[in-house]
Amino acid sequence: MLETLFPYKMHLYILQLEGYQVGRFLKWIRLNLTKRSANSKKRLVWTFKAAFIFYSALFYVVMFNFLLVYTLKYLGLFVGVLLATQSYLFLILGLLTLKPYEILNRKRVKRETHTKTLLLKQRGLKVIGIAGSYGKTSVKEFLYQILKTKYNVLRTPESYNTVFGVWKVVDYELDNQYDFFICEMGAYKIGEIKEICEMVVPDHAILTGINEQHMDRFKKIENTIKAKFEIVDYSNEKGITLVNGNNEYIQKNYAKHRSSCVLYASPSSGYNIKNIKSDKAGSRFTLELGGNTFEASTKLIGNSNLENISAAASMAYLLGLEPQLIVEAVSHLQSIPHRQELKTWPNGLMVIDDAYSSNVTGFKAALELLKSYSAYHKVIATPGIVELGDKTTTIHKELGELADSVCDKVFLIGKNERTLSFLEGVGSKNKVMFLNSLSELPKYITDTNNTVVLIENDLPDNY
Question: 90 pLDDT band (50/70/90 cuts)?
């Protein structure tokens, strides 16, 4: 009852999901002013920041009520309690109170990380930075699995790709036992990748791809291009700079930033994967490294995974790892959870789990993978892609048209601009069904032996 009237924890949870960005938080509040519960796909993480904001908010509530009662008596008590129900106001006050400390602490963290990294680099450490709109986590994990067959390697775990995430890894784990540190770098705005580059000073860099991901934050594709190319601009010019030659935005722009870039995933680059043959057991292909070809295989499926393998294998080769070791490591690569991961549910249903997140490039690649299961009844379940800004309607309509050409059944999760635009693109409306949540899906799949389901994206509670 109290949490319904005073939803401080729920609103703090949403504020945390929105990356503590006041504008995005207030937008959510405006659209969900009366909402008092969340599905809690994740849980509120009680970091120092979250705890400070929460208890500061409670402090401000008490102080406001005390002042109102002192000045207006019973009327003040009524107004104070009414105001206290608007928990988002006091949480924002708590966040603003923390800002001066955060600014100073961010400077300290960057300085300490830079100093420690430079010291370790003097002792032989090499830093590999990875950035891009998509694929960076998979490339990081594949490169880590390949390089560790010969070297001591540390990588940023999961999606620790912010200033403070990188700082934690460097501060707590990085020491002189490591030969390589692979650092994933994320960005929601121009300048964030530059900041991380200034912290860890990359010797080598990989740019995995650029697309409309997070367009709602970047506003226009030119800003995304500028932000992602910071990995090229601020890494060592004498090191290896590997960029995706199969991405149109990179193809058109890489020469403006660094002429010495090495392209991968491009037929003419000398670093590519071709002659692909895939089945449920995995993929077999020809791996091209520096113009030399090697027959290779992997337990992984899908062109997205193979493109990411190409990036990791190419960087390992350019760093001097023997091709035989690379081919062997590729054959043992472990899939990244929820990224085109092939699963069999307990009821026997075959599922392509691509639920971690989604972007336009990955969505199309996942549909292409689903299409390859020609002997199966093909199903997709998706809530669509978030943060596409003013391209939301256009992109989802295009994806709906593509899904219509591939899928026998389309399950759209939730009714909103994303899914309604997707529906508009599907010509055969009778194949579409709306679900409230993914958990409802199994009861609508009756033929589990001859059906393959693509789960494309899963959204946190702020969406």
Answer: very high
Residues 6 or more apart from 244 whose CB is under 8 A from it? Answer: 132, 135, 207, 208, 209, 250, 263, 264, 265, 307, 311
Owner of token pair 């490294």: 289
- What HEC string does the chain produce? CHHHHCCHHHHHHHHHHCCCCHHHHHHHHHHCCCCCCCCCCCCCCCCHHHHHHHHHHHHHHHHHHHHHHHHHHHHHHHHHHHHHCCHHHHHHHHHHHHHHHHHHHHHHHHHHHHHHHHHHHHCCCEEEEEECCCCHHHHHHHHHHHHCCCCCEEECCCCCCCHHHHHHHHHHCCCCCCCEEEEECCCCCCCHHHHHHHHHCCCEEEECCCCCCCHHHHCCHHHHHHHHCHHHHCCCCCCCEEEECCCHHHHHHHHHHCCCCEEECCCCCCEEEEEEEEECCEEEEEEEECCEEEEEEECCCCHHHHHHHHHHHHHHHHCCCCHHHHHHHHHCCCCCCCCCEEEECCCCCEEEEECCCCCHHHHHHHHHHHHCCCCCEEEEEECCCCCCHHHHHHHHHHHHHHHHHHCCEEEEECCCHHHHHHHHHCCCHHHEEEECCHHHHHHHCCCCCCEEEEEECCCCCCC
- Hey, which CATH number is domain 123-331, 3.40.1190.10, 1.10.10.10, 3.40.50.12780, 3.40.50.300? 3.40.1190.10
Ranges in the chain annotated CATH 3.90.190.20: 341-456
CATH of the domain spanning 341-456, picked from 3.30.360.10, 3.40.50.1820, 3.90.190.20, 3.20.80.10: 3.90.190.20
What is the strand order of the sheet 432-435 is part of? 341-344, 350-354, 451-456, 377-382, 409-413, 432-435
Other CB atoms closer than 10 Å to residue 340's CB: what's the count? 25
Residue 51 CB coordination number (10 Å): 12
Full-model pTM: 0.89
Is a pLDDT exceeding 80 seen at residue 74?
yes
Mean of pLDDT values over 207-221:
88
Residue range(s) of every CATH 3.40.1190.10 domain in the chain: 123-331
Give tens-digit pLDDT for 361-376.
999 999 999 999 988 9
Using one digit for the tens of pLDDT, what is the confidence trace for 401-448? 999 999 999 999 999 999 999 999 999 889 999 999 888 998 898 888
